[in-house]
């Protein structure tokens, strides 16, 4: 048994996605598929094979294959359907009846399934969404795509090189890319998002001392845990000029604890520096604009 599925990355006109971004997003998408497959049958396994990609707006065309042979066509359709609804509009608002109606209006999803099998697929998709299966892995896809400014939207289709019915716009990537761990019962939680921060002051020595950043009008300190970035910076291979307005696109983790019934931030850290964004104009620290 096998099933076609494509991750469709909508790009700005005339631009192409960065290879590393596409690769990271593809790996995160692979994790989404396997997490949903595991929730349907933990004793089976699937293999996701990349067939091809198309230029313009990139379509990563893939085939899902049942390794063990246990997955039925209905189950493979449920996996694909679950993924498609994770990349649809207002994911949290879908009910079973709405899902059933949507599946019935898209013949490319249910294909030759019987009425009873379509209903079974809709129930499985509803269970996947209600239980938030693969939510963390889906958030990772959005985080990876947010790295590249050329990406303006993403969706999932089951037909090669076809634009999906729903495209999630870039404006929703940050919210959908939130990865939260912890729970109300433990009184602690962490949230990881991709953010663009303004650099106030760096730390040019090894260690976990806190750099200072500004986010809008608020300043805070956070250590940079990205060893590869620190190695490049301290060796001079990635110098940061002495100028105002330097921005850094980073993967920021915020830790919170519940105190007196209110969530309070207790720690921040930079897990990865994605990009250093130079200010529009740069002047030598010893010179002046007129010079």
Average pLDDT level: 87
What is the first-to-last residue Cα distance? Answer: 69 Å
Radius of gyration, Cα only, in angstroms?
22 Å
Largest sheet: 6 strands, antiparallel
What share of the residues does DSSP label as strand, in percent? 25-35%
User: What is the percent of helical residues?
Assistant: 25-40%
Q: Report the structural category.
A: alpha+beta
| Overall body shape | elongated
Poorly predicted sequence stretches spanning 5 or more consecutive residues: 283-291
Please give the number of β-strands.
Answer: 11
In DSSP terms (H or I, runs of 4 or more residues), the helix count works out at 8
Run of helices and strands: EHEEHHHHHEEHEEEEHEE
Could you state the oligomeric state of the chains shown?
A: single chain
What does this structure look like?
With 291 residues, this protein is α+β, with helices and mostly antiparallel strands. Helix content is 31%, strand content 33%. The protein has helices spanning 19-40, 73-86, 96-104, 107-110, 115-130, 135-146, 173-176, 227-234; strands spanning 2-11, 46-54, 58-66, 151-157, 168-169, 179-183, 188-201, 211-215, 218-222, 247-259, 262-277. Strands 6, 7, 8, 9, 10 and 11 form a six-stranded antiparallel sheet that branches. A five-stranded antiparallel sheet has the order 2-3-1-4-5. The longest helix has 22 residues, at 19-40. The model is unreliable at 283-291 (pLDDT under 50).
């Amino acid at each position: 048994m096998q099933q076609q599925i494509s991750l469709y990355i909508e790009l700005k006109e005339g631009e192409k996605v960065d290879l590393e971004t596409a690769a990271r997003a593809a790996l995160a998408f692979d994790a989404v598929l396997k997490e949903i497959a595991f929730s349907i049958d933990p004793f089976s396994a699937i293999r996701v094979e990349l067939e091809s990609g198309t230029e313009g707006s990139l379509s990563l065309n893939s085939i899902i294959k049942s390794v063990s042979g246990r997955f039925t066509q209905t189950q493979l359709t449920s996996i694909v359907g679950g993924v498609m609804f994770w990349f649809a509009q207002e994911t949290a608002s879908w009910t079973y009846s709405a899902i059933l109606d949507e599946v019935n209006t898209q013949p490319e999803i249910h294909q030759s399934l019987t009425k009873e099998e379509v209903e079974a697929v809709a129930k499985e998709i509803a269970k996947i969404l209600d239980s938030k299966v693969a939510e963390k892995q889906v958030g990772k896809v959005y985080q990876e795509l947010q790295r590249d400014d050329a990406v303006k939207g993403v969706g999932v289709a089951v037909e090669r090189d076809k634009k999906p019915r729903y495209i999630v716009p870039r404006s929703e990537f940050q919210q959908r890319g939130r990865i939260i761990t912890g729970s109300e019962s433990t009184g602690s939680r962490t949230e990881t998002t991709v953010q663009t921060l303004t650099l106030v002051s760096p730390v040019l020595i090894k260690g976990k001392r806190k750099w200072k950043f500004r986010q809008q009008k608020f300043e805070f300190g956070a250590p940079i845990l990205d060893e590869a970035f620190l190695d490049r910076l301290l060796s001079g291979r990635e110098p940061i000029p002495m100028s105002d307005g330097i921005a850094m696109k980073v993967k920021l983790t915020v830790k919170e604890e519940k105190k007196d019934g209110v969530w309070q931030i207790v720690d921040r850290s930079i897990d990865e520096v994605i990009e250093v964004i130079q200010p529009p104009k740069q002047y030598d620290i010893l010179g002046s604009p007129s010079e």
